[in-house]
């Protein structure tokens, strides 16, 4: 659904209009596309470290089914996903390899997860490498919509996970675009997104099947921007506008989503469902392979979050939590209480250090997400249609 249509649908149903602009905050990158592209040398990409926010004390449970924020009122709002629009072959751009001088950060030990695994809180999940049983799954929709997000802050290079949700738009965690410290000084810079990132752990090499894409305009919530950088947070999610590029040398300019396709989104839908969490956690294949962890909701916690069983670690931040992932190509196909296919209902915000609880949490996408989506769609003609 287009942004204006989404707003009109909300008004027709008697819902509140999207949250005012004061509840979201935007930023334009300090450097241009060429400078960002030049910044990310092979050595920097290889040495980038997984980013993690500061973990608050164990989250406080929400009793019953009470709404915790005013933004959570109303009915779920959706935006439609789409398969790729352009039939471009993979370019397989090399990012780094074993000969690159810098070394990958030391990876945490694998959790050794198996089907129906769980931690000390007994929240079951099932985790696997996304390409098991398939050849080059990173090149197939909808997996190809997920990738690595690189950025820098205070002279240090980091990486998160992210997913394409419109023609020029990616969705990630708020802590992947801003420190949460308030003000303009906390914004991250040098955003580069690599959809379908494909690494080989044994050789410490990686390629970008669809190339590297620079990002400039970013938006997150005021809740995250002014939240002190701790999680759980009511709005730890963000969107970034991605610049067009030619995929093949001398070819036409393409918008990111034309090449990868994009996932649908749905607000107010965490809890009472089953999600597939995707990303590049450092505890599997040193963060070089796309990993899936599937589970049902475990518990709702303050201030506006839901936790699910999962053993993905640092590096999976910002990765999408998808309802009915890859069930069908059509956005409306599916069955059950929440039947929409390939709909992002949250992004990875936090886990718990130590690896014993084996749960992850996400902020509930609410009216602030709707305002954010409408704002970035309107920022430049062609972003979302």
TL;DR?
With 385 residues, this protein is mainly beta.
What would you note in describing this structure?
The chain is mainly beta and 385 residues long. It has a single domain (3-243, 258-379), classed as Beta Barrel (Thrombin, subunit H), CATH 2.40.10. 12% of the residues lie in helices and 30% in strands. It has six helices and 25 strands. The protein has helices at 3-12, 33-39, 42-47, 222-225, 256-260, 367-379, and strands at 24-28, 49-50, 54-55, 78-79, 93-96, 126-129, 146-153, 156-164, 169-172, 189-195, 198-200, 205-208, 213-221, 230-231, 238-242, 245-246, 253-254, 264-266, 274-279, 291-301, 305-309, 320-323, 343-347, 350-351, 359-363. Strands 4, 6, 18, 19, 20, 21, 22, 23, 24 and 25 form a ten-stranded mixed sheet that branches. The protein has a six-stranded antiparallel β-barrel with strand order 7-8-9-15-13-10. A hairpin with a 4-residue loop joins strand 11 and strand 12 (205-208). The longest helix has 13 residues, at 367-379. The protein is globular, with a radius of gyration of 19 Å. It starts with a helix and ends in a 6-residue tail after the last helix. Residues 1-21 and 109-113 have low confidence and may be disordered.
Structural key phrases:
Thrombin, subunit H, mainly beta, globular, disordered N terminus, six-stranded antiparallel beta barrel
Report the portion of residues in β strands: 25-35%
CATH architecture level-2 label: Beta Barrel
CATH class: Mainly Beta
Tally of separate domains = 1
Structural class: mainly beta
The overall strand count is: 25
